[in-house]
Amino acid sequence: MKSEFSNKLNSCYATFKIKNTGSKDLTISAVRINDESYEFDLGKGINTRILNASDNDLVWVDIKSSGQSFQTDDVVKITVEAESVALDNNPYIIEDNHLS
């Protein structure tokens, strides 16, 4: 999983692009900003939160409902957690962190 964090933060939503560089679909299970969980949706995977193998999508993070606000020049730590199924059919959890 690769995240491109040319994010846009405002008082309602943060957005960033994410790419699945693997060969299996990923279910995006959590998005955290500065270690705090936020509600989120995917653009193409809005109903499933699934990021297909070798595909990319836009992540929309709901800032407004948390009561937080960010400025465009704020530096934040964004963590994305994704789940897949390992070769032994057990869950496999991946985390990707970036400062942006």
Which key features would you list for this structure?
single chain; 100 residues; Immunoglobulin-like; 0% helix
Tell me what you see in this structure.
There is one protein chain. It is elongated and about 45 Å long. Strands 3, 4, 6, 8 and 9 form a 5-stranded antiparallel β-sheet that branches. It is mostly beta strands. It starts with a strand and ends with a strand. A hairpin with a 5-residue loop joins strand 8 and strand 9 (91-99). The model has no long low-confidence stretch (mean pLDDT 86). The chain has strands at 2-9, 13-19, 26-33, 36-38, 40-42, 50-51, 56-62, 77-85, 91-99. It has a single domain, classed as Immunoglobulin-like (Sandwich).
Task: Describe how the helices and strands are arranged.
Blueprint (H helix, E strand, L loop, with lengths): L1 E8 L3 E7 L6 E8 L2 E3 L1 E3 L7 E2 L4 E7 L14 E9 L5 E9 L1
Antiparallel strand pairs: 1-2, 2-7, 3-4, 3-6, 3-8, 5-7, 8-9
